[in-house]
Amino acid sequence: MSLVQTENLTKVYGTGETAITALDHANLSVDAGEFVAVMGPSGCGKSTLLHLIGGLDRPTEGSVQIDGQWLARLSDDALSKLRRRKIGFVFQFFNLIPILTAVENAALPLLLDGANPAQAKQKAIEWLTKVGLGARLHSRPDQLSAGQQQRVAIARALITEPVLVLADEPTGNLDTKSSDEIAALLRQVAKEWGRSVLMVTHDPHIASYAERIVLMRDGKIVEDRRNG
User: Fold this and answer.
1) Domain range for residue 102?
2) Taking the mean position of all CA atoms in its chain, how far away is CA 118?
3) CATH number of the domain that 188 lies in?
4) 213: closest CA among 194, 199, 196?
5) Is pTM beyond 0.90 here?
6) How far is C-alpha 131 from the chain's CA centre?
7) pLDDT tens string 151-169
8) Does residue 25 lie within any of the structural domains?
9) Considering the domain boundaries, does residue 7 fall inside one?
């Protein structure tokens, strides 16, 4: 069974003549440990798809299943718990807290879930070391390059041992070298660490790091192919 499954996933904003269909009956599956890139022009529904799969928004029609659980059947509390424990989010602008160090930023999801602070710190150190930031544990975001900040964000996404990582334009704010490094790291997240990675990108070169490329246009999935 696929780790992620969407069935006729649809999102309509507004009503009547002003209604806009952002996502139109999208069917997508992602296997455990698979790295899938979603591409398409601005406004084609890529981010809407990601937000619905991540439980950040509710669909107008259709359904999402993650790790055997249908999101629509979950209470708000249960959905929040699933998001905290089973899904890691990586955003274009990192969303790090400026006054916290790399360790403190990475540990935050565990602390918010009620973990022991010492254990959360230790796990943050482990993940930051895995993503290549072992020497910058106590640096604040303003002391790190953009690429290093995104590595902190990836460590933060992985610290709860999620089954799924959702990355929304994770290289959109990076230079070419850092973009390649982050794309390679996301491939490592899937291949070596066994997480499913679903990445939205507008960059064909970055998408080439994924095993599968899903193309979207006008809210619809128009192509889904293996890469290479």
Assistant:
1) 32-50+75-226
2) 26
3) 3.40.50.300
4) 199
5) yes
6) 16
7) 999 999 999 999 999 999 9
8) no
9) no
